């Protein structure tokens, strides 16, 4: 793992907003994560066997995954019908903390580690780190739920997020064009990129390890209740027959729907998450194939060709994301 003194020697990318990136172990990651977040996860975080780690490439359904996992794992204490449910007044990103970004932003890494250690089991945590950069004991311990999204939709979502959240991060991204974002994405030069390699690592892990569940965002949109049942069983908190009869899975899906989460007070007006970003930046359309509303056919072809080249020989294919299959 790179040490802070080695960072200046790593390849640098400054065009991909909002962070300056460095290439390490084949992936482009924010400088601050490499300098502080990743070493702290390795040295200060103690995984537990019942931890649930929610993993994803940025803007691949992370917010929805966090909401669903929290509502499912905590339903005994917070039934989805509870009028004071944390998801009715809080943002999923504040309820399920990111590991590497938490340590990156922490004023006192030891205090953050102590706070994580004090959390009751099973802990829900999140990461955008590639599987190969998870510390070995973290990859081997607990359960990992990974959500994969079609590259073009993940790209457009990341671009719109960057432009919307830029003010919160002190970055002027108004002139950051989609064309620039596409070119950088196709070169793998984006946060946690190349995206296709990030996905394939977790997909391959799910084939060889029993503690990794691989979900596709597009399939979750088509069958949210069925996907939730799969996730709950994997997390060790499957729904009982009685809960099924009472419609608990359906109630959780409704509670975690995009419209419900967008209208939570903490996600409106000037509400901000713990990392200082405006909460409404995390919510957009939540549909498949919206890339076609933003990209030109030429841009779409550029991404398709880059992804096809990157996946060659892997055996993995992304779900279809053409306008004809767009979720309404």
From TrEMBL:
Keywords: Transferase. Pfam families: Sulfotransfer_1 (PF00685). InterPro entries: P-loop_NTPase (IPR027417), Sulfotransferase_dom (IPR000863). GO terms for cellular component: cytoplasm. It is an enzyme of class 2 (transferase). Residues 50-314 form the Sulfotransferase domain. It comes from the Eukaryota. The keyword Transferase applies. GO terms for biological process: sulfation. Belongs to the sulfotransferase 1 family. This is Sulfotransferase.
């Amino acid at each position: 793992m790179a040490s802070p003194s080695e960072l200046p020697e790593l390849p640098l990318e400054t065009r991909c907003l909002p962070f300056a990136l460095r290439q390490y172990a084949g992936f482009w990651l924010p400088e601050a994560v490499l300098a502080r977040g990743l070493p702290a996860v390795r040295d200060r975080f103690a995984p537990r066997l019942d931890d649930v780690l929610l993993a994803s490439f940025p803007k691949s359904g992370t917010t929805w995954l966090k909401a669903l996992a929290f509502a499912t794992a905590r339903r005994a204490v917070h039934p989805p019908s509870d009028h004071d449910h944390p998801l009715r007044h809080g943002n999923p990103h504040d309820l399920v903390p990111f590991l590497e970004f938490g340590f990156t932003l922490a004023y006192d890494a030891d205090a953050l580690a102590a706070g994580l250690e004090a959390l009751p089991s099973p802990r829900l945590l999140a990461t955008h780190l590639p599987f190969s950069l998870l510390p070995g004991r973290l990859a081997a311990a607990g359960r990992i739920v990974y959500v994969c999204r079609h590259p073009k939709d993940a790209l457009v979502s990341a671009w719109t997020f960057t432009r919307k959240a830029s003010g919160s991060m002190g970055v002027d991204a108004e002139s950051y064009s989609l064309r620039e974002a596409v070119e950088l994405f196709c070169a793998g030069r984006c946060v946690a990129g190349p995206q296709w390699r990030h996905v394939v690592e977790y997909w391959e892990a799910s084939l060889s390890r029993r503690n990794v569940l691989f979900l596709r965002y597009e399939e979750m949109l088509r069958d949210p209740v069925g996907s939730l049942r799969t996730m709950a069983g994997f997390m060790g908190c499957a729904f009982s027959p009685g809960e099924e009869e009472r419609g608990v899975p359906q109630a959780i899906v409704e509670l975690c729907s995009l419209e419900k989460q967008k209208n939570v007070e903490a996600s409106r007006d000037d509400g901000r998450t713990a990392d200082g970003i405006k909460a409404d930046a995390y919510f957009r359309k939540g549909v498949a194939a919206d890339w076609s509303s933003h990209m030109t056919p030429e841009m779409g072809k550029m991404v398709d060709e880059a992804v096809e080249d990157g996946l060659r020989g892997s055996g993995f294919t992304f779900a279809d994301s053409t306008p004809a299959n767009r979720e309404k």
